[in-house]
Design goal:
Blueprint (H helix, E strand, L loop, with lengths): L3 E6 L5 H10 L4 E5 L10 E6 L25 E4 L1 H9 L3 E18 L14 E12 L4 E7 L6 E4 L4 E4 L11 H12 L8 H16 L3 E6 L3 H14 L3 E7 L7 H11 L4 E5 L1 H8 L5 H20 L5 E5 L4 H7 L16 H5 L2 E3 L7 H10 L4 H4 L19 H20 L8 E15 L2 E14 L7 E2 L4 H14 L3 E6 L13
Parallel strand pairs: 1-2, 1-3, 3-4, 4-9, 10-11, 10-13, 11-12, 13-14, 16-18
Antiparallel strand pairs: 5-6, 5-7, 7-8, 8-9, 15-16, 16-17
Helix pairs in contact: 4-5, 4-11, 5-11, 7-8, 13-14
Length: 507
């Protein structure tokens, strides 16, 4: 990457959203911890300071040295970032009378300021802070206000530094994209040429140089990330890529055969391994969710290791790690939010070097790259699917019969979503087999059989999710079809929980 924007993360819930908005402007950016600014300014066109859960007046608040870049290259402070720069320069930040959270409207705008060109008076913005800037230094000029906040945005005289107390990256800020584009294009002078096509060209060239004539092994899952990673690698090194697709017996109905066929049409060198019975044996009688996950994860590593050792002269292990995986693995507070989950432990076990072609991309970017690579929509637009598969959608112990029941019910639900044009309207959907039985009546007979829950959510990245308001007529049709066609189920319920407080998966 020849040019980039650096986003310094002070712990805001919106930091990833800033990065996604800037990347949507065809500009490459990276998120770094607030105290890890690069030693060199080479290639850095601008810096964004994120929001934070802290108050700048708290003793434990993050307060790095901004001298390496402030005043030297364009800088944009957002919320906490705006307050931090004001405080550093001798201004005053105080607790607001009431926490300012939610919608506000810009009542004053300096339309001559380059950051705010094209932003309308009265434009809605999104506030999320408990403090406000009450006094600004003499060389700070207010360029926007709201009815409640005088210093809604400012520009520092004599240096390319701007700040806003609202969040332009949030969807609710109506002209937020205009503000970010003004910063990227007109202030930072970025070329805005970071596109899927340019990413593919650069990445393929880098992979060729990195790997050379070495051989690479990749574990395919059938999901978007590993599929796009495989096609990128195949484009770079061709027959030196060896893919392994393990059936752990917890995939969706007919998924093993269907995905294998899809991979072969893409020209990938794939070996399918049916290890279902091994996983069923290892999981027998296990009910604890975390134990199930560990057994499934270890089982995959063991099977993959055996298969990979049958290949000769493998030097690299490829993984479908994407950018949020890396960000979440290293929290700025030192707490691990989510451990690195791509076949963890394999590189050390197999003594292999790791290559991660997608480590710079968000999920939506992976899909755009996949589309540019010519991968079929059926693979690119697949919903996320948990690594342990149906193992975390069968509550309680796992048996082949329970897997069969869930596969049949799930296939009816997913196929129904596709047939009714609803599949692409939801972010993720699935069926959960509950560890309860209920009384029912079929014909003249009393039944005592299983219940399943249908789950469909709306989300952009899985961090938060709302339940999908699917049509009642559709839910009624799917419920009847599952009960009539799947032996062992006599009751269907629909999950209307959002995340938070619930999670997307039940285990």
């Amino acid at each position: 990457m020849n040019e980039k924007i650096i986003i310094l993360d002070f712990g805001s819930q919106y930091t990833q959203l800033i990065a996604r908005r800037i990347r949507e402007l065809n500009t490459y950016c990276e998120i770094l911890p607030y105290n890890k600014f690069p030693d060199s300014l080479e290639g850095i066109k601008g810096v964004v300071l994120s929001g934070s859960p802290f108050s700048v007046n708290q003793e434990e608040a993050f307060k790095p040295n901004l001298d390496p870049f402030k005043g030297k290259i364009p800088t944009l402070g957002i919320c906490y970032g705006a307050q931090l720069m004001a405080l550093y320069a001798g201004g005053k930040v105080e607790q607001a009378g009431t926490r300012e959270y939610g919608r506000a409207h810009l009542s004053f705008i300096d339309s001559n300021d380059i950051l705010l060109q094209g932003v309308r008076s009265g434009s809605q913005v999104w506030m999320s802070h408990g403090d406000t800037i009450t006094v600004i230094p003499d060389h700070f000029n207010v360029i926007a206000s709201t009815n409640e906040v005088k210093v809604g945005a400012y520009k520092i005289e004599g240096e390319p530094t701007w700040a806003v107390q609202f969040h332009p990256e949030v969807y609710h800020s109506e002209d937020g994209t205009i503000i970010l584009n003004n910063f990227v294009q007109h202030i930072c002078k970025c070329k805005q040429d970071w596109t899927p096509a340019s990413f593919i060209e650069t990445t393929v060239s880098e992979l060729k140089n990195q790997i050379g004539d070495d051989r690479v092994v990749l574990g395919l899952s059938g999901g978007v990330d590993s599929t796009v990673a495989a096609v990128l690698l195949n484009k770079a090194i061709g027959e030196n890529l060896f893919c392994i697709f393990v059936d752990n017996g917890l995939l969706r109905k007919n998924e093993f055969e269907t995905v294998l066929e899809n991979y072969k049409t893409l020209g990938l060198n794939v070996k399918g391994v049916n290890a279902s019975q091994r996983f069923y044996n290892d999981l027998k009688g296990v009910t604890d969710p975390e134990t199930k996950r560990k057994i499934i994860g270890k089982g995959f590593i063991d099977v993959f290791d055996v298969e990979a050792h049958q290949l000769e002269n493998i030097k690299w292990l490829a993984q479908g790690t994407i950018y949020p995986d890396r960000i979440e693995s290293l929290s700025i507070t030192g707490m691990v939010i989510k451990s690195h989950h791509n076949v963890g432990g394999l590189p050390e076990k197999m003594n292999l070097k790791v290559v991660e072609p997608l480590h710079l991309l968000f999920k939506d970017e992976v899909r755009r790259v996949g589309k540019a690579l010519g991968i079929p929509e059926s693979l690119i637009q697949r919903h996320p699917f948990p690594g342990p598969g149906l193992g975390v959608r069968i509550l309680g112990d796992i048996t082949p019969e329970k897997v069969r029941i869930l596969q049949e019910a799930d296939a009816i639900f997913i196929d129904g979503l596709k047939e009714h044009g609803l599949y692409q309207q939801v972010w993720q959907a699935g069926t959960i087999l509950l560890p309860i039985q209920s009384v029912g009546v079929m014909g003249d007979e009393r039944t005592y059989e299983n219940a399943v829950a249908l789950r469909a959510v709306l989300s952009t990245d899985g961090m938060t999710a709302d339940w999908a308001k699917l049509p009642y007529e559709f839910l009624a049709k799917i419920s009847n079809e599952i009960i009539n066609k799947v032996k062992g189920i006599n009751r269907v319920v629909y999950d209307i929980s959002s995340k938070p407080p619930a999670t997307i998966e039940w285990e």
